[in-house]
Specification:
The structure is a homotetramer of 141-residue chains. Chain A is built from three helices and eight strands, in the order E-H-H-E-E-E-E-E-E-E-H. Chain A has 141 residues and is an alpha+beta fold. Chain A starts with 7 loop residues before the first strand and ends in a 5-residue tail after the last helix. At the A-B interface, helix 1 and strand 3 of A face helix 1 and strand 3 of B.
Chain lengths: 141, 141, 141, 141
């Protein structure tokens, strides 16, 4: 049986000047930073640092897929909430993202990232997320 | 009848130091820069600058969707080719991307961006790409 | 007589993954982001937004000089404090920066930025910071 | 006797969209990227890769000081030349930078970076640039 807690975590962010483009909105590529921050905070809330795990195990978790949907643009100094929700931690680690304005909850951005476990330095694909990570994320084989 | 030339354009790139992450590979978010460069070159090859078009018309083309697939990581000083191919320029501007190693043609990354036409400053959605852009991109209504 | 309050402001920061380089430390160029965040917070604490001022006056404050000194590198997830201190707001706006580790106060980085007032779009140099900004920053002619 | 060839190298660059700020000019922090690209090309022209040197020796060359002077702003699609000139490769590696518009040679930016040799992972300061690097850069003790 494959069971998983719903793991979700939110971070607050304020749009910095250097994330804006000449159209006065956040350049689409910079949303990946917000996702990264939220994903790291999600893992941390579950007691996981993929960075530390790499240092002890040599296993890295490269992002193999991303998608974003931009519904409403963020502007300078906008205060927003980025929620990361774990979707899967079995063969891959899949995380969904949603960015809302802090003021009125308007949804601005949605996204997803997928990561696989790979053994460095040869980058050999492991066909499953390591058990230690899985159990902290609440999956059971 | 809806007809469109196949418009495609390639740029060369060499991976800079500041695009790398601690795992010695290009951080996934930085591929959006390569896509941006290739898309701008694609438009330029068709005689279009969306930036200039904005200055004269007040119409901007925000990216509303992106997706990436990372097949093989780029590393420091890798020489690569990023090809941008126009998929649609009707309701939206849709462009596909493919990044290959220059040395052996190995496919590293695939991606897509979608843009809509919006009238600044109120950001009112136009339900079609302006005719001037369409005709330069080879679409016919 | 030329008098000025000592205006100083601190922000907290946590080093994100995407600011690191392959040597596992923050890439030197990314410290400019931390300075920008601290400078914006400093101005905000004095009731100033240079961004809003530009929108109403057409006057911008481009950075014309920067310097940094890197004493101790920041690493992933380091918690640090960046203090911005106003040095001058007369002919130029000069701000000094100091980044310390939150844990033990170790000094990591020092820096300075200098900005001048310029009238857009022709970018004509104004030889003084506008009075409204000066008075909020506590300078008196 | 301390002798050194004048080592200088130029790269061409075209300003990308994502380096611009809301004032339609290159954000000051992004000039560090242009300097990095020019410095790497300078070393490469002398047969040096500090990245490869690190991999075989464990010696890294962190930037300990930077300075920039912004004379004329770069804008979207500006074509520019960034020249890097070696100033010293003895105790430190010091490189000067100058960015000019390709069209008319107008000077836009000047800068300098200083790097020291440090032994990873303990980051112990070496009080001199390693001989192998020095000799490739043309210094003689």
């Amino acid at each position: 049986m494959n069971r998983q807690k719903t793991i979700s975590h939110e971070i607050n962010l304020t749009v910095p000047f250097y994330d804006l483009d000449p159209m006065q909105i956040v350049w689409h590529g910079n949303y990946m930073n917000y996702f990264e921050d939220a994903r790291a905070a999600l893992f941390r809330s579950a007691g996981i640092s993929l960075y530390d795990f790499y240092e002890k195990s040599g296993i890295v978790f490269p992002v193999i897929k991303t998608s974003t949907k931009h519904i409403f643009p963020l502007r300078y100094r906008d205060e927003a909430v980025c929620r990361a929700t774990l979707v899967e931690a079995d063969y891959k680690i899949v995380v969904d993202f949603e960015i809302r304005l802090a003021s009125d909850g308007k949804i601005c951005t949605r996204g997803r990232t997928e990561q696989v476990a790979v053994k460095a330095p040869g980058m050999e694909l492991l066909y499953s997320v390591p058990d230690e990570i899985k159990s902290l994320l609440g999956s059971s084989a």
